Amino acid sequence: MPTFSAPDGTQLAYRVGGDGDPVICLPGGPTDSSYLGELGDLSRHRRLIRLDLRGTGRSAIPEDTTSYRCDRLVDDVEALREHLGLPRIDVLAHCAGANVAAQYVARYPANVSKLTLITPSTRAVGITITAETRRETAQLRKNEPWFPAAFAALEAISAGKAKDDDWQAIAPFFCGRWDAAAKDLHAASQPTNMEAVSLFGSDGAFDPETTRSALAACQAPVLLLAGEFDLNSPPQSTVEFAGLFPNAELVVQPGAGHYPWLDDADQFVATTAAFLR
Questions:
Q1: In Å, what is the CA distance from 38 to each residue of 97, 147, 181?
Q2: Beta carbons within 8 Å of 165's beta carbon, 6+ residues apart
Q3: Which backbone phi and psi does 23 adopt, to 5 degrees?
Q4: How far apart are CA 68 and CA 12, in angstroms?
Q5: pTM of the model as a whole
Q6: Where in the chain are the domains?
Q7: 3-class SS of residue 155
Q8: Quick check: 219 and 255 in contact, CB under 8 A?
Q9: Rounded CA separation 171/177 (Å)
Q10: Per-residue confidence (pLDDT) for residue 86, from 0 to 100
Q11: What do you get for the CA distance between the two ends of the chain, in Å?
Q12: Phi, psi angle pair for 177, to nearest 5°
């Protein structure tokens, strides 16, 4: 696996697969990028450069662990661009990776050609997802056999009375279908470096007002893709996120959850490949 040096000297790893022009892929979590796989065969259209965020996957643990903070990760992306010798980059980010991507666009607007945000987290731009919005999204699955137990767990979490088992019980809400493949992917996407998780959004990680102002001046085309059933990043929040860009396309993939490339790979690839073409 190839590596490069971050500005602070931390050795970071990235995975390469596919054909065509490169697109930098930022995982959620923060976790390593292996769970992204080939993004539903998007690798047939583009060369996927999947970054293992610092302290995850095969990337090294930094000496200064405050560098796990989201805004500090932005310069790791810039170092990867420089390492690859690319004057501008297309960026694709999933979930929490969208917070890094949004701040990257804000800090280095001239270095981004196109931006793709897949079921994005909205913390970097200060969009709050209410318990009621999550409840309404969850109700779309009321006919699923697992719904009663999962919804009861969601209610306990919303009321601040969650038990450890409740977090696992709501997992089906993150997938358009809850089968063996979905269970495997959801498990693979879970972070293992909990220090990186806890420090990702620590004090100073986000400056929503500044980021929103910068995104309003963003000239790059942007695609935001939401999953109809995604409890983590409900379509309503993605609609609001899309409104922050002057040149954004919003797509809500029917029947999809938090991992739309798994729920309907053909639809996901058709949408993202057409945008990135």
A1: 17, 30, 14
A2: 153
A3: -135, 130
A4: 13
A5: 0.96
A6: 3-126+192-276
A7: helix
A8: no
A9: 11
A10: 98
A11: 27
A12: -145, 145
- Reported as a single tens digit per residue, the pLDDT across 64-121 is 999 999 999 999 999 999 999 999 999 999 999 999 999 999 999 999 999 999 999 9
Q: Which two tokens stand for residue 137?
A: 């999204």
The CATH-assigned architecture of domain 3-126+192-276 is 3-Layer(aba) Sandwich (3.40)
Q: State the DSSP string of 176-237.
A: SS-SHHHHHHHHHTS-S-HHHHHHHT-TTS--HHHHHHHHTT--S-EEEEEETT-SSS-HHH
CA nearest neighbour of 124 among 236, 211, 197: 211
| Apex 215 CA angle, 213 and 267, nearest 5 | 150
Contacts of 29 (CB under 8 A, 6+ apart): 53, 56, 95, 96, 97, 189, 190, 191, 196, 197
Q: What is the pLDDT of residues 13-71, one digit of tens each?
A: 999 999 899 999 999 999 999 999 999 999 999 999 999 999 999 999 999 999 999 99
**In the numeric block, which tokens belong to residue 160?**
């601040």
CA distance 76 to 68: 11
Tens-digit pLDDT profile for residues 233-274: 999 999 999 999 999 999 999 999 999 999 999 999 999 999
Measured between alpha carbons, how far is 131 from 126 in angstroms, rounded to an integer? Answer: 16
Dihedral pair phi/psi, residue 117, rounded to 5°: -115, 115
